[in-house]
Amino acid sequence: MQICLRLLIVAWLAIGSAFGFSFDRNATVEPIFSANLPPEARQTLALIKAGGPFPYERDGIVFGNFEKRLPLHPRGYYREYTVKTPWRRDRGPRRIVAGQPGEYYYTDDHYRTFRRITEQDGR
C-alpha cells in the first residue's frame, strides 16, 4: 500500500512538472519594471491603484492561484484584473493579479507565467 501511494505521488509530481505546474510553496517570479509593461497594463495598474472604475465586469474577482505559481496565501488574498489585448474581442490572456497594496503580478499568457511588477526606484 505504501509503495503504491509513493508511486502515485511521484507520478502526480512528474505529470504536474511536465505541464509546467509549480509545487513550490514559496513560488518566486521574475520581476518586470512597470515602465516595461505594455501601455494597456500600465493603464490597468493605474486603475487598480486608483480603485477603479474598471471596464470589465469580472475585474476584481478573487484569483485562486490554483496552479500555485504565486506565493501561497489564503483564498481571497489575490484579485485579478483584465489587461486589454488590442487584437482580441474577448478579455484575452493578459491580467494583473494584485495582492497586498503594492504587490502586483503581470501575466500575458493567462496565468501560465507571472512577473512581479516593480517600480523603477526598486519598490
Number of strands: 6
> Structural class, judged by helices and strands?
alpha+beta
Count of helix runs: 2
User: What's the architecture in CATH terms?
Assistant: Roll
CATH topology: Nuclear Transport Factor 2, Chain: A
Task: Explain how this protein is built.
The protein has helices at residues 2-18, 39-50, and strands at 30-33, 61-63, 78-82, 95-98, 104-107, 115-118. It has a six-stranded mixed beta sheet, with helices on one face. The protein has a single domain, classed as Nuclear Transport Factor 2, Chain: A. The radius of gyration is 17 Å and the shape is globular. The longest helix has 17 residues, at 2-18. The chain starts with a helix and ends in a 5-residue tail after the last strand. The protein is α+β, with helices and mostly antiparallel strands and 123 residues long.
Briefly say what this structure is.
The chain has one domain (25-118): Nuclear Transport Factor 2, Chain: A. 24% of the residues lie in helices and 20% in strands.
Outline the fold blueprint.
Blueprint: H1 2-18, E1 30-33, H2 39-50, E2 61-63, E3 78-82, E4 95-98, E5 104-107, E6 115-118
Parallel strand pairs: 1-6
Antiparallel strand pairs: 2-3, 3-4, 4-5, 5-6
